[in-house]
Design goal:
The complex is a heterodimer of chains A (225) and B (447).
Chain A (H helix, E strand, L loop, with lengths): L1 E4 H4 L1 H9 L9 E5 L16 E5 L14 E4 L15 E4 L15 E4 L12 E7 L13 E6 L15 E4 L10 E4 L3 H14 L9 E5 L13
Parallel strand pairs in A: 1-2, 2-3, 3-4, 4-5, 5-6, 6-7, 7-8, 8-9
Antiparallel strand pairs in A: 9-11, 10-11
Chain B lengths: L20 H13 L4 E2 L13 E3 L20 E3 L8 E3 L3 E3 L9 H14 L3 E2 L7 H6 L3 E5 L8 H6 L2 E5 L10 E3 L6 H7 L7 E3 L9 H14 L6 E6 L3 H11 L3 E5 L8 E2 H6 L4 H14 L7 E5 L5 H9 L4 E4 L1 H7 L7 H6 L24 H4 L4 H25 L13 E3 L2 H7 L18
Parallel strand pairs in B: 5-15, 6-7, 7-8, 8-11, 11-12, 12-14, 14-15
Antiparallel strand pairs in B: 1-13, 2-16, 3-4, 9-10
Classes of the chains: A alpha/beta (225), B alpha/beta (447).
Chain lengths: 225, 447
């Protein structure tokens, strides 16, 4: 395993080093020590490497990730895994605001809780949260899946498009155009796979599904509010 | 008008200035449909503009350069503050961000062709980067928008600069709407949305909420792109002093300032005509912010919103801008609203020169559409040639004015080269009223 002391070597050197890893690199395992809440750790990766961050991170850890697995052994600041394209970002602790925002692909797993606006404008990412999520989560979510093993805050799924939201606990309120939907066998199958991928100790049958009523899909004055 | 009939005296009918025919027509339209008007094209009302300024050519107190022979430089370098690879342009007129989706692929290609021939840059828009534009634009600015439609780190790395769009002159504070009619298979795929439904563009970025966050966001973008690319921040012309100050504080290499005459593909008419400020009112305030922070010319200023001629270019630069951007003018140069399509514009209920329902996807010129048949009408090579010609003319016009003011580079134009025709323009532009050394609000003076 390659070890990198962020405090001693600096962020620029870290990201330059990680970006230099080619798709066939044999330096596939990395450990980052002393992150100390730094921002933009391991952003823009594009190689099948595993990066273990030994501590908590600041803003945008794992941002725009492709292929890599970024494992944060702590909590993550705002915008973790924003606009992720593929790969995995795994947070052992909690995540702050906008976790997985605009993500196009890959999997974001949060073993703790996520704050507000989790999965905002998600565009294909799968987000699996072991704990609770805050208000305005999945706002304008377009596609992908969000799994919440705990509770969801206010205005879940406001103005969402085709993303699928699965919540085991309570939902404080649903946002505009978001409704509870039937859990059909294909959803049970999908959710079971997501729960397994996220390492969740939960059964698909315990969840409710939420999605778009599709009444905001074309502008209609009767839907204005 | 026929004479009044004999009988009781009557007052001659007079059209109300307040309830004019266009106002009444809009009231009737609203009453009939229950929906506000959505359109493109930017503000149509008459606003204080560059036409309200004049240049003071040289006589004795200033020494002019010969108009056709002496050199007048036009090059500009953008992004000299932090970026490893600043953008070098031959001319200070760039192409503003316009989305694929709003525009056809052929139109994006033509913009790239024309700009490359002229030695300048184009800018992507909401909807991501197309091969048509990347393939033909030598210098391509990649917009980083609130919607993040088509946002892709691979494209981020293959652009020449990144423009973080915070605001747009036609609708500061507003989001966008691409109506379902224009959502073809390709547009839908690029934006990760179902075909044929309206696509909303958010009014705010999803993963930052203020200038302190923006500073960190910029650092992330720089880290992803190896600190190579200039970072532009685009703001709508609303509070130019404070927004410019905060953009600089957040780490902008370049500030793009867009006034309310700027175009839009589609938004509410009431928004276009009533929100924001004319670019004339914004430039000097933005320059003042740059000067107060000691950043004028260190952080470059691009202004846009109704730029049409070389005179507009020269006036903007004399007020302190480093470059200008054109959007609507570029589309007209490509052939939009051309009278040769008059019959078809008439069929759409409008006329050449006034067509603004770009969001409906029925543009007879094949430019603001995704309709395959209409797109065939537009020739990207010819469009590129026309845009190049237009950019050259603008540059020549600006140069000839600059020479008359005794300047051997467009950047040497200065506020002292200008006077204002109206009190309003003098106050907004902070340029002396013609025949005086005074403008409203000038420190130490009073009317």
């Amino acid at each position: 395993m390659q070890s990198f002391d962020l405090e001693a070597q600096g962020l620029r050197a870290l990201n330059t080093t990680l970006h230099a890893q080619a798709k066939d690199t044999n330096q596939t395992a990395w450990e980052i020590v002393n992150p100390k809440g730094s921002h933009a750790i391991a952003v823009g990766l594009d190689a099948p490497i595993e990066v273990n961050v030994k501590g908590s991170t600041g803003y945008y850890c794992g941002g725009m990730n492709k292929q890599a697995t970024v494992h944060v052994h702590g909590s993550a600041g705002p915008g973790v895994a924003e606009n992720m394209m593929s790969g995995t970002v795994l947070i052992e602790g909690d995540a702050s605001q906008y976790a997985g925002a605009t993500g196009n692909g890959g999997t974001l797993i949060i073993k703790g809780n996520a704050s507000s606006r989790c999965g905002i404008s998600m565009k294909g990412i799968d987000i699996i949260v072991h704990g609770n999520i805050g208000h305005m989560s999945a706002f304008m979510a377009q596609s992908g899946n969000m799994v919440v093993c705990g509770d969801a805050g206010d205005a879940l799924g406001d103005s969402l498009y085709e993303a699928k939201l699965f919540v085991r606990g309570s939902v404080k309120s649903l946002g505009a155009d978001c409704i509870e939907k039937e859990m059909r066998p294909e959803h049970i199958e999908l959710l079971t796979e997501l729960l397994e991928r996220g390492g969740c100790d939960a059964k698909a049958s315990e969840f409710k599904r939420y999605g778009s009523a599709r009444e905001l899909y074309t502008f209609n004055i009767d839907n204005a509010y | 008008m026929k004479d009044d009939a004999p009988g009781a005296p009557r007052t001659t009918p007079i059209q109300s200035a307040t309830f004019s025919n266009p106002v009444n027509a809009e009231i009737r339209r609203a009453a009939a449909t229950g929906i506000y008007d959505i359109r493109g094209g930017g503000a149509k009302r008459k606003l204080p503009h560059f036409d309200d300024l004049l240049f003071l050519g040289a006589s004795i107190s200033r020494y002019p350069l010969e108009g056709y022979r002496e050199k007048c430089e036009t090059s500009v370098t953008l992004g000299t503050r932090f970026a490893k690879n600043p953008i070098q342009l031959d001319i200070p007129v760039t192409i503003a961000g316009m989305s694929f989706g709003a525009l056809s692929g052929g139109a994006k290609e033509a913009l790239g062709r024309g700009a490359t021939l002229a030695g300048t840059s184009t800018t992507t828009g909401d909807g991501g980067m197309t091969e048509e534009e990347r393939g033909h634009s030598n210098k391509l600015i990649y917009q980083y928008l609130p919607s993040r439609y088509g946002m892709n780190p691979d494209d981020l790395r293959r652009c020449d600069a990144i423009e973080i769009v915070v605001g747009q002159g036609a609708k500061p504070g507003g989001g966008g709407m691409l109506l379902g009619q224009k959502i073809s298979d390709r547009v839908a795929e690029m934006r990760n949305l179902p075909k044929g439904i309206d696509q909303r563009s958010a009014c705010r970025h999803p993963d930052w909420t203020g200038p302190d966050d923006l500073e960190i966001k910029i650092m992330e973008l720089r880290e992803i792109t190896n600190w190579e690319k200039p970072i532009y921040i685009k703001i709508g012309g609303a509070r130019p002093y404070f927004d410019t100050t905060l953009a600089i504080k957040a780490g902008a290499d370049v500030v793009v300032l867009d006034g309310m005459q700027g175009g839009t593909a589609a938004t509410q008419d009431v928004f276009i005509e009533n929100v924001g400020q004319p670019i004339l009112a914004c430039i000097r305030e933005a320059v003042r912010a740059l000067q107060d922070l000691g950043m004028h010319r260190e952080v470059q200023l691009i202004v846009s919103g109704g730029i049409r001629t070389g005179a507009d270019v020269a006036k903007a630069m004399a007020m302190g801008a480093d470059a200008v951007a054109i959007g609507t003018a570029a589309l007209i140069a490509l052939g939009d609203n051309d009278p040769k399509w008059e019959a078809e514009y008439n069929a759409l209920g409008t006329t050449a020169g006034a067509y603004d329902d770009w969001h409906e996807g029925k543009d007879p010129a094949g430019i603001t559409t995704q309709d395959a048949e209409l797109m065939k009408r537009f020739d990207p090579v010819e469009g590129g040639r026309r845009l190049n010609n237009y950019l050259k003319v603008m540059t020549l016009e600006a140069q000839t004015i600059a020479r008359a003011c005794g300047k051997n580079h467009l950047h040497n134009l200065e506020p002292e080269d200008l006077c204002a025709l109206t009190m309003e323009a003098a106050a907004m532009a902070k340029i002396p009223l013609a025949g005086t050394d005074w403008y409203p609000g000038k420190p130490g003076t009073s009317y």
